[in-house]
Fold:
Amino acid sequence: MIFLPERFDLNEWTVIAFFLLTLIIALRLPPRFPLSIIVTMAVFSAATARIFDHALAGPVVKDLYDIMDLNKIEWFDLLTYLMFAPPGYLFLYAYEKWQPKGLQIVAFLLATALLATGIEWLLHLGRVFTHKTWKLEYSFLVYLFVQPLTLRLFVYLKRYQWKED
Amino acid sequence: MGVVSILAIMLLLLVAFAVVRHHLHPQEVVTVWFACAAVLATAFDACTPRNSNYFKLSDEPHLFLVERILEVVMIPVLLLLYLNLMLWIQSRTGKVAATVGCYALLLGLEALGAASQAFCYVQYQRWWSLILWAVVMLMATAIQKGIRGLLRREGVTI
Structure:
């Protein structure tokens, strides 16, 4: 059973506003890559967030953080995972536009990980995430791990498509 | 015994997936794998006592890991092997046999997870699995066909 929110308040509005804002920015940008790559990378971004969150909720490490109102899965939790898809697209869009090379890639990943951590802090203020034993610097490390992975997959899929063409 | 069997099956599935001739495009592989893992993770979470009392996960870290491996690695890889096989097999009888085989293996993996005590059923009715795995197979097939359709529309030859 998946629950509805207890109260429709600040955190629900924060999720809706963040999702719509990033989605509108993503839709207004001129398209740079094929729809199939966008769909694959969107699924990858949203699913990675879900799988990470799911993997962390276990008997080894307990009560790291809560998402939204309840310590249960609610419908808005699912929107918080989908909410990672448009920023994932914007991250790849920025990479494609600036095409960093060599050490520039390190600087790019550092800047985007810092930006993502900053956004997560804002979402924490909006009570989307309630950190318990979790610290924001852990999120920074997670972004430093996930973002290069996302980039590597994106570059591989793009090169594969070109090779096929 | 159950844990060792599950880990051995996982390794065999991964090796099988690495060595088979791939008929799936890498984008189909990534999309099906991640979408299935995320949906299964959510479905499992929704069934645990936090949300409902259908089944209970083990508090033992190694058994907990087995349960996570089942949802995130083994079931998605099995589904990918099935989809790959469906693209390779031409005959209708072969396709039916592959579908029945995959369905039986999914039920078997679930039974093995329960036997290893990675999770135990509470209010879960065992017959629900018959519907659950059919839906999961349909979902994986629909995602793969959807991505293939998109790729074809973009002029990618598969």
Observations:
- Chain B touches chain A through 32 residues (CB under 8 Å).
